[in-house]
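[job 0417] fold request received: Lipoprotein
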Amino acid sequence: MNPRNRNILIAAIVVIVVVVAGIIGVTSHKKSSANSKTVNIGIMTSTKQDDAIWKVVSKTAKDKYGITLKFTHFTDYTQPNKALQNGSIDLDAFQHYAFLNEWNQANKTDLVSIGDTMISPIHIYSSKYKDVKDIPDNATVAVPNDASNESRALYVLKSAGLIKLDVSGDALATPKDVTENPKHLVIKELDAAQTARALDSVAASVVNFNYATAAKLPENQSIYAEPINKDSAQWINLIAAKKSEKNNKIYKEVVKAYETAATKKAIKEQYPTGGELPAWGLKLK
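[job 0417] inference complete; emitting structure tokens
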């Protein structure tokens, strides 16, 4: 073979090898990317109990579905949904249905629930009385002042037999919806974080579980626990996604990794007194 032709042939073979290697490399990278399943979940800065529960969920997600869970922590309830909406995170898990519905209406967003997590019964606490029946006439009762938690607190007062409500449809309850208040209770609206601290200055206070935990309120100061009934559906915590991603296969697998017997066991181990309860599959009456 002519030396010149041989060199041309060799050069052509080298080019082909390089091109083929490049194609294989790109294909391999794409395949690797497709198989790399990492989901970033926005949660509130958590307790060691919550961390232990998410550790169990993360193990299930990795072992059964090949999904790596990463977490972005927030300290302000207004931040996770913003991060979800702008794509900074893939999912969030911090809110209940009432909060999500209120958020969507106020911010013109369409975030949706793709699965349930836990429900945290709230309590009426008092440092002065041992039973809700002991609360005297004209006493002051503190409730959270944000719309969804205030509504929840009013429903708890209703369940405790202290007031009656008349609320239309899915609307949140407000003090204006109180139709009967036989003890003429004064309902004092406070920032949710202040309800526990107000116990010394009020007859009783409706306190969210996380704030009761943070304030280290003793269990014997709880004089009434929120019942789990038909009113509870709106207080179930959830995993949220953008509406456009509600059928995302990987995100559905994250929900499956959460809603397991292993997670249920972890919740019960971490919250033996029922501060948090598994919420998926609850039968509400």
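[job 0417] notes: The chain has two domains: 37-120+234-278, 123-227. Residues 17-21, 23-35 have pLDDT under 50 and may be disordered.
[job 0417] exit 0
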